[in-house]
């Protein structure tokens, strides 16, 4: 018998829910956290204590030179227990309520 797992609809299209289940309160799929605000794609450069440091680049236009410069941002994101995130993974992170002093993002899933 296949057990039906309760997974929330997090309101983002094109993202598959994780295969594992967790009882993490700060999980967007199985917990109480809701995604709202910014969503970024980035690469994980550090994982420690359930927190991933995600880096992504964006282009900033400079009108004087009519060219773009690359700007790099790093964001700390909470990793739910149902996801197995390693350094080098491409992940999708979404903004949530403040989860701790410096964490306002949560890892949604790998890309
Ligand atoms: Zn979960």
Write a concise keyword list for the protein shown above:
111 residues; mainly beta; OB fold (Dihydrolipoamide Acetyltransferase, E2P); five-stranded mixed beta barrel; 5 strands; binds zinc ion
| CATH architecture heading of the domain at 39-110 | Beta Barrel
What fraction of the residues are assigned to beta strands by DSSP? 35-45%
CATH class of the domain at 39-110: Mainly Beta
The CATH topology of the domain at 39-110 is given as OB fold (Dihydrolipoamide Acetyltransferase, E2P)
Main beta-sheet annotation: 5 strands, mixed, barrel
Determine the N-to-C terminus distance: 30 Å
Bound ligands, each once: zinc ion
Tell me about this structure:
- The structure is a single chain.
- This protein is mostly beta strands.
- It has a domain at 39-110: OB fold (Dihydrolipoamide Acetyltransferase, E2P), CATH 2.40.50.1000.
- Helix content is 0%, strand content 41%.
- It has a five-stranded mixed beta barrel.
- Strand 1 (39-48) and strand 2 form a beta hairpin.
- The model has no long low-confidence stretch (mean pLDDT 89).
- Bound molecules: zinc ion.
């Amino acid at each position: 018998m296949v057990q039906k797992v309760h997974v929330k609809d997090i309101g983002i299209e094109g993202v598959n829910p994780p295969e594992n289940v967790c009882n993490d309160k700060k999980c967007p799929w199985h917990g109480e956290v809701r995604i709202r605000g910014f969503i970024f794609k980035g690469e994980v450069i550090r994982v420690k204590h359930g927190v991933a440091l995600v880096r992504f680049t964006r282009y900033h236009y400079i009108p004087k030179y009519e060219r773009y410069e690359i700007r790099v941002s790093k964001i700390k994101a909470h990793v739910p227990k149902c996801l197995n995130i390693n350094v080098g993974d491409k992940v999708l992170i979404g903004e949530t309520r403040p989860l701790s002093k410096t964490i306002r993002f949560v890892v949604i899933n790998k890309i």
